[in-house]
Amino acid sequence: MDHRTATEILQRLAKLERETVRYRQGVVTDDSPLSVALGGSTVAYEDVSTIAAHLEAGDTVGALAFANDLLVLGHLGGVTPPLVTSLPASPADGREVYYQSAAMAALGIVWHLRYRSGATGSYKWEYLGGGTLSDTVNVDETTTSTSFADLATTGPSVVIPLAGDYLFTVSAQVIAPLGNFGAASAYGDDEGAMSDGNTTASHPFLKTVASASTVTLKYRVSGGTGTFLRRVITATPVRVG
Fold first, then answer.
1. Residue 2, exposed/middle/buried by CB under 10 A (0-12, 13-18, 19+)?
2. Which of 65, 145, 209, 231 could form a disulfide with 137 if both were Cys (CB 3.0 to 4.6 A apart)?
3. What is the pLDDT of residues 13-56, one digit of tens each?
């Protein structure tokens, strides 16, 4: 129990004049206005308040029941964030969710996200952990294109489920003629490209992406014929919205 919580409880208790206080357990039935069901039924109190950071319908909570007031202390035990397929429209500050799109479910990928209202920019759901989107093409193929283009086997590529800022990494084994280089880019420009003459190279970069975007690795050479193999792209969210 932190200092603020203890202080608020003591202030409430100091106002008592032979008033009975009971500890109760209940379930939040509504978060605005806050309502709590105790013993299976919602009890009408003149004032229902909380010292918890945020509560939502369905949360199991502990509370101090006064004669006319109910002080909700907070969640009981560990609280597991809900698994969602779309982000909540009006989240409370600090709310956490596990996000999984249909495509992510097929891959067994889940993202743990937390909403921070004070975050700068449009994307306020910050990534706490989870799987990385990735794709690999192992076949070796060639190109003579001096501008970014697909190889015979397109890709690798990833589909971005939520708009936001993502950390991408692109890598490939590159074989290029002496004095020339090959480059692979996720966005068809040198900003997100890795390049080398005859080795395995990788390049991480941050990019803002729209939802439902397909990001595909493309290739070019400075001259001659370049060969690319063991091609990989990964994407990890930084913050989304």
1. exposed
2. 231
3. 666 555 677 888 888 888 778 888 887 666 677 778 787 667 77
Q: How, if at all, do strands 83-84 and 141-143 pair?
A: unpaired
Query: Which pair of structure tokens corresponds to residue 75?
Result: 């969640």
Question: Pick from 222, 220, 234, 230: which is nearest to 150 by CA?
Answer: 220
Tokens 């109760």 locate to: 24
* Fold classified for 133-240: Jelly Rolls (2.60.120)
- Residue 100's H or E segment, with its range, is none
Residues 6+ apart with CB under 8 A from 49: 34, 69, 70, 71, 72
DSSP codes of every residue in 122-164:
S--EEEEEE--EEEEE---EEE--SS-B--SS---EEEE-S-E
Strand partners, 137: 231
Closest to 193 measured CA to CA, from 213, 226, 165, 221: 221
Distance, CA of 34 to CA of 40 (rounded, Å): 16
The per-residue pLDDT for range 65-120, each reduced to its tens digit, is 877 788 888 776 656 788 999 999 888 888 899 999 999 999 999 999 999 999 99
Cβ-Cβ contacts under 8 Å for 19 (sequence gap 6 or more): 66, 67
Q: Residue 158: how many CB atoms within 10 A of its CB?
A: 23
What would be the CATH architecture of the domain defined by 3-75? Answer: Beta Barrel (2.40)
Query: Maximum Cα–Cα distance for the chain, whole Å?
Result: 91
